[in-house]
Amino acid sequence: MATYDLSALTTAFVGGAEAFGKELLNWDIRSMGVQVRTNVNTPQAMAKFEADGEPQPYRKQDDFNGGTFTDRVLTAYQSKYDQELDAEDFRNTYLAELPEMPFEQFAVNQAGRQFLEALMKNTLWTGVRNGAGTTSADICDGWGTIIAAEVIGGGLTEVATGAITSANAVTKVEQVADAVPTFMKQKGFRILSSFDVLEKYRKHYRTLNAFGFNKNERGQYLLDGINAVLQPVAFMGTSQRLVATWDGNLVFGTDLERLSMFPTPHLNLLRNRILFPAGCQIRDLDVITINDQA
Fold first, then answer.
1. What is the tally of structural domains in the chain?
2. What's the pTM?
3. Which residues contact residue 275 at a Cβ distance below 8 angstroms, ignoring those fewer than 6 apart?
4. Does some domain include residue 125?
5. What does each of the 294 residues of the chain score in pLDDT, given as a tens digit?
6. How far is residue 100's CA from residue 183's CA, in Å, rounded to a whole number?
């Protein structure tokens, strides 16, 4: 049977309690430039076509060319969280009376929010698929894991920035920005980073320019002299990796983009199972430029 740590609760009953949940990261990956696919019920191949040959001077003779299809497969793996609630555990404490909502509803809502935060912190970037695992990091390969595998396999080449510090962050970010293909420079792109790298960048920027590095009128950290923004993302944790790419190139797959709840009464208990398929993939390796830090 599931148990709860009651050591931090007031033992005497206090009426009119206010109950609130642990503060969590918001599930807002669309705003970070991630493409969310909500119909991944089976593995989806993201097929890329590249025509062979190139233009040439005119001649009457036929010179037909073909092309090549390559694909990267997005697979969403089922994940779960099991929860058992017994309101009797809290009969004589302040959680016995919640003005906002019934105890069970409050606890289920909080579990769902923590479920999504665990995916944000442990799965989307550093996750490594292990079907026999027992943690959120085992659900699927995260984008950081996929990138590292592509570097080893030769699919991606790293820009050698070396370590990023508060004394060189502007230089290192611009080194990655300068290394992207010309078509990305023309269209514009994001450089995804951790909040740790952003902090180092703004400190170095202030040192170089004697004024702060702030968001523009559109709420973006616009880089100097290039059509690019520095985008800190919570899912990268404290990673020192820089990822220059287009919106939608990092893909997250699920089925409905919502948690499925299966609350089931059992005697005076409430048992609940939360399900949420999750999978990560990179759509096109040709529109991603990275540095050599993990």
1. 1
2. 0.87
3. 78, 79, 80, 259, 260, 262
4. yes
5. 555 454 444 444 444 445 556 677 889 999 999 999 999 999 999 998 989 999 999 999 999 999 998 889 999 999 999 999 887 776 666 555 555 566 777 788 888 999 999 999 999 999 999 999 999 999 999 999 999 999 999 999 999 999 999 999 999 999 999 999 999 999 999 999 999 999 999 999 999 998 888 877 677 899 999 999 999 999 999 999 999 999 999 999 998 878 898 988 888 888 899 999 999 999 999 999 999 999
6. 53
Q: Is residue 176 part of a domain?
A: yes
SS (H, E, C) 72-128: EEECCECCEEEEEECHHHHCCCHHHCCCCCCHHHHHHHHHHHHHHHHHHHHHCCCCC
Residue 193's domain is classified under what CATH number? Answer: 3.90.1690
132 belongs to a structural domain: yes
- Are 247 and 288 in contact by the 8 Å Cβ rule? The answer is no
99: domain range?
29-41+74-291
Place of tokens 């080194």: 175
Asked whether residue 59 is domain-assigned, the answer is: no
